[in-house]
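Input.
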Amino acid sequence: MAVDAKGRGMSVTLRILVVDDEAIGRDFLGDALSLLGHEVVLADSGDAALHVLEAASAFDLVFTDLRMPGATDGLGVLRAVKRRDPDLPVVLVTAHGTLSVATEVLRGGADDILEKPVALEDLELCLVRVQERARLLRENRFHRSRSTFAPDLLVHSEAMHEVLATVERVAASRATVLLQGESGTGKERIAAEIHRRSDRADGPLVKVNTAAVPEGLMESEFFGHEAGAFTGAVRRRQGCFEGADGGTLFLDEVGEMAPALQAKLLRVVQEGELVRVGGSRPVKVDVRLVVATNRDLEREVREGRFREDLYYRLAVVPITLPPLRSRPEDVVPLAESFLRAGLEFDAQARDLLRHHDWPGNVRELQNVVQRASLLAEGSVVDGELLGRWVGGASPDRGLGGDPIHSLVGTPLRAVEDALIEATLADCEGNRTRAAKVLGIGVRTLFNRLRAIEEREAESVGPVRS
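Output.
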């Protein structure tokens, strides 16, 4: 936390751009803001500021001198910033503080104005005003967002209504949320909804699949590294925690995390700070954590594979997503949302959808509907076509039928995708076991699952669960 000159707690660390063609004013503001605990980037002209804004990562605040030589003066910087991000605060600094000048810059969208030479007390008060305005803006957006759930979140079952009621209650808090449920039940979608309904909705939502990150790179992926920390680390790199600063970090498949990394994650959760690989200075982060797993973490704790202290830190608000087989009311509406435009199910297809067990949950449903959409003739997906994958309708699936023959006409990639997802479901989401059954490596399995998700997203849009 940054502090003011009197040692009072003021705010989280801000990333601030200071623009001034005069070195004295530029260096004074830079030094003062650094002493107040903020990260400062300096630019010596309006044109240089525009270049920095294009090339650098996001800023929280911009201070710019009003009158500068060159093609871009302070008003030009102001206009450029507001075009890029209307909510990014801009403070104009000028030695010509007349009423007409103040009126001009405030009408141009400036959030505040300071007169040169800038007094430290005035600078501190300006920071307080700007941050309070940003807080009110976030709160207003948060309250507006609470009026409704995302329009593509289709829910009909009582079980999912209970899940969303819990989401509504906890989204506004900073509590860590643990999402539990079988693979394909929509945990990532619910994590996105928690973020959308929180007062951090304007901040980043960073998603990391823990199982997809090689163990040797996990610490760098999570916490970042300093230049020279290891071979190939040619420059400093932020990890996902710093990338999610001010927003939400979603860690999927957290049950796959190695014990050594569990200890480091516990420290970040407890202390709100991290140390980059190869570094020694703690870095403060302000992150709301949402984690997900298809494992029984309580059993993992009992069997010594997951830290008990970390589990209780993560399971502040546990939410269990029910499998699709326990909420048949949701199946047909979801399936219809995945259908290609202009298609519909006949009565037999709807009956098959409702009575299938869906071991792969929403992801399996989406995959089946995608295949049916591609292979359907005319405007109707009938029960005979759908029966190739959900059972019960095709004569090929009757007693004595040939299960291989029932797949004739289905693209090889679709058959492989279905086999992979069914095997994973049969292994209760355990990727290591599923990979062994399939005779492939865990990394290969992950790559195939990621490819399946990408193809589904391209064909039918976002998962609605």
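Residues 120-145 form the longest helix (26 residues).
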